[in-house]
Amino acid sequence: MALTKEQKKNIVEKLKQSIAQQKAVVFVAIDGLKTTELFDLRKELKQDNCLLTVAKKTLLSIAFKQSKMEFDAKELKGELALVFGFGDEIMPARIAYQFSKKNKNLKILGGFFENEIKTAEEMIILAKIPSKEELLAKIIGSIKAPISGFANVLQGNIKGLITVLAKAKT
């Protein structure tokens, strides 16, 4: 059933709002994806402040054009869906990539990151970057390692002194 002009305007408005609020967008092809799989993906995305939107390519192109972003959705092959990230910039790419590893019907086609159109390969590279929490944990571990080592060295000297004193007593 064809959409009315009013329905199309509403869809474009919603897309423009999502585009304005996004920190990153991942373009994915969902050809052959079952409804239950799509539902699972949406559920997983929602937990991380992301949104999956399926719309016609012409409406997507109009929404991006009205948002002053150069993007032609017709260049991408397959049934197109957008994964918007509103919190963490990397999270939509990471979730889409992990889901595509489990389900071969989902394919990353590219994305929009830091106000630039990115290729599928660039979005996959972004998806493989560790999260902020993981990076912070690694930095803290790196900072803590010399201090822990120094404390262990100091404890070794004290243990050695106690051993010498214990042997001298006997």
What would you note in describing this structure?
With 170 residues, this protein is α+β, with helices and mostly antiparallel strands. 58% of the residues lie in helices and 16% in strands. It folds into 2 domains: 5-129, Alpha-Beta Plaits (2-Layer Sandwich), CATH 3.30.70; 131-170. The protein is built from 6 helices and 5 strands; from the N terminus they run H-E-H-E-H-E-H-E-E-H-H. The protein has a 5-stranded antiparallel beta sheet with strand order 2-3-1-4-5, sandwiched between helices. Helix 1 (5-21) crosses helix 3 (57-66) and helix 4 crosses helix 5. The termini are far apart.
| Terminal residue distance | 96 Å
Number of helices: 6
Q: Spell the H/E element sequence.
A: HEHEHEHEEHH
- Total of domains: 2
Percent of residues in helices comes to 55-70%
CATH hierarchy: architecture of the largest domain: 2-Layer Sandwich
| CATH homologous superfamily title of the largest domain | Ribosomal protein L10, N-terminal RNA-binding domain
Taking the sheet with the most strands, its summary is: 5 strands, antiparallel
Unreliably modeled segments:
none
Number of strands: 5
At the first level of CATH, the class of the largest domain is: Alpha Beta
- Counting helices, strands and paired strands, the structural category is alpha+beta
What's the CATH topology label of the largest domain? Alpha-Beta Plaits
* Strand content range: 15-25%
